[in-house]
Design a protein that fits this description.
Blueprint: E1 3-5, E2 7-8, E3 11-12, E4 29-30, H1 35-44, H2 48-65, H3 72-90, E5 101-105, E6 115-119, H4 124-132, E7 141-143, H5 144-149, H6 155-161, E8 169-180, E9 185-191, H7 199-204, E10 209-214, E11 217-222, E12 226-227, H8 233-248, E13 251-254, E14 260-264, H9 277-294, H10 296-301, H11 308-331, E15 335-336
Parallel strand pairs: 4-15
Antiparallel strand pairs: 1-8, 2-3, 5-6, 6-7, 8-9, 8-14, 9-11, 9-12, 10-11, 13-14
Helix pairs in contact: 1-2, 1-11, 2-3, 3-4, 3-9, 3-11, 9-11
Amino acid sequence: MGAHRLHIAGKTVRLHSSLQGPDFRTQRVLCSDPWDFVSLWLKRNHQKDASFYWDQARHFFDASVQLPELSAPLTSYYCFLNATKALLSSKRVSFTESHGVGGRSEQGRTSLSNELIDFQGGGILPSLCKLLGEPDNAGKTFTLKEVFWRMPFIHRAFCLSYQGATELFIPLNGNCFMRKDNSKEAWFQAEIDRRYINAHTQRVVQPGFEFFQVDKKYFIRRKRRFRWSGRDIENSITQFTVYHKQIRRRIIPIFSSENRWYLKKSVAGHEKLVNSQLVLMYAAMHRLSELSRYDPISLAKHFNVNHNWLLSEFIRTSPAQFVYGMASEITGLEFIRPDAF
C-alpha cells in the first residue's frame, strides 16, 4: 500500500526547529538575520520585558563581531543570557538572576577535557531546561570537550581536531511526514545517503529508527507511528506535536540555507548529556566567558594546541546558531537563512 506526504494549511510538513511550541501552519521566515523580525513580533504581542532583553542581546551580538577570539566569548555569553531572558519572559516563565551554571579548570595540560562545566539547580539555564522539557543536570559536571562533541555545527571540526573521535551525527535529506493511503497511520521519514546503509549504522540508529529502500533511493524512518485524521485536524496536530517533539530530541538542525538536519546516533556516552543545542551552547559559552574574563592567559593557551580551530569555529559560529534557535522558540516559527554560514 502506498503513502503520501502530510500537509497542514496547504504546505508539506517538515521538521521544525522550535522544540516547545512549533507553529506548523505558518510559512517559514526567510531572513538574513532574525533580529528585526523578532523585535517587531515581540512589540506586536506587547512583550515589553522580552523586547528589552532581545534588544540587549542584539547589542552584545554586534559587539562580539568586532572583538577578537579572546574577548568575544564574554560579550557572546551576555548575548546568550539576554536572548534566553527574552524567551523566558515571552513565555511568562519566572527565573532568578543567577546564571545557573559554573565552571573551573582542572590541573594539568591545556585541554578541553580539563575545562569543567558545573550545572546548577537554580538560575537562568535551569529555567531554560524546564521550559524546553529537559533535565537540568543539577549537580552534574561535564567537560567542554564532551559538550562540543554533541554539537553538529562544529562536529566536523571536532572530528578533525580529535583523530579517531566517534562521529555522532548522520545527515538527513528531504525530511517529511508520511501518511499511509486510506489510513490514519502516519510517520516521519527522510532520505539518507547510501554510504550510511550498513550494519553498523543500522545498529547505532536504534532504538526507534529503521532503513528501507524505494527504487534506488535509501530512506530512514521512525518506527513509532502517530494518528492523523483530516476530520479532526486540531486533535491530530496536538498528537503530531508530541510526536514531533520526541523526534527532535534525536534530530538536530544546523541553521543555514534550507536548514540541515542530523540524526544523533545511539552510541555509548551520548546518553549522559541529552540536552538540546541551546542548552549546550549556553553552558559552553559561559565557561569560555569565565576564562575570557578571569583567566585570559589560560584561554590564550587553548589557541596554541590541537583544538584551536575547533574553539575558533565555536566562538565564530555559535552566536548565529543560538540566536536563530532562540528566535524560533520565541515565535514558534521556522527561520531560514538565504545563504549558508
